[in-house]
Write a structure and sequence with these properties.
This protein is of the alpha+beta class. It is about 25% helix and about 30% strand. The chain is built from five helices and ten strands; from the N terminus they run H-H-H-H-H-E-E-E-E-E-E-E-E-E-E. Helix 2 (about 20-30) packs across helix 3 and helix 2 packs across helix 4 (about 50-60). InterPro entries: Cro/C1-type_HTH, Cupin_2, Lambda_DNA-bd_dom_sf, RmlC-like_jellyroll, RmlC_Cupin_sf, TransReg_Diox_bact_type.
Length: about 190
């Protein structure tokens, strides 16, 4: 498991070694200054996607960024250690997966209250995938120009290199899981 304090110190040292201000790395990585600061202080464990953006901002691969930080091959992420995010509009998501070097995978549990629209998410890089399973309620999943209505027990797969959206138009809360393999865009060469 990667110790958040060691990760934070490592990121701080890499940033300082490149002469980057916190705000400069935050801008290059596309994350907020407050998020980056909390990660560097070891107060917040970033998701794989956020960590991948920070690696890009530092000009490193994710696996190179995390080299030598992994202390155990088995990672147990207790409920209290999971990232719980309250989103605008009243929906809530819990990132269940730990950060694993070189693995761009996330498993997220989301709860959408009745009538909640979580919005449209941008297309990820080609080769990205999402699997969605509905635990309870009804989920309206938009994939590109199509919409799919999923009930409790339903599941779906789609290539995540298109815009996609999640909404609950039902009368009860909707709980669903997303397993996502998110590829990073390749750096331009030449």
């Amino acid at each position: 498991m990667i110790d958040p304090v060691l990760l934070g110190r490592h990121l701080h040292d890499l940033r300082a070694g490149r002469g980057l201000a916190l705000s400069a790395l935050a801008e290059a990585a596309g994350v907020s200054v407050s998020m980056l600061s909390a990660i560097e202080r070891g107060e917040k464990t970033p998701t794989v996607v956020v960590l991948s953006r920070i690696a890009d901002g530092l000009g490193l691969s994710l696996s190179r960024l995390l080299a030598d930080l992994e202390s155990d091959r088995v990672i147990v992420r207790r409920a209290a250690e999971q990232d719980h995010v309250a989103e605008p509009g009243g929906w809530h998501r819990t990132v269940l997966t730990p950060v694993v070097p070189g693995v761009n995978f996330e498993w997220i549990r989301t709860t959408l209250p009745s009538g909640c629209d979580a919005g449209v998410f941008p297309a990820y890089a080609p080769g990205s995938h999402e699997f969605v399973a509905v635990e309870s309620g009804e989920l309206c999943l938009g994939v590109g120009d199509a919409e799919y209505v999923l009930a409790a027990g339903d599941s779906v797969y789609f290539p995540a290199d298109v815009t996609h959206s999640y909404a609950n138009r039902g009368q009860k809360p909707c709980v669903y899981f997303v397993a996502a393999l998110i590829m990073r865009p390749r750096a331009k060469t030449g």
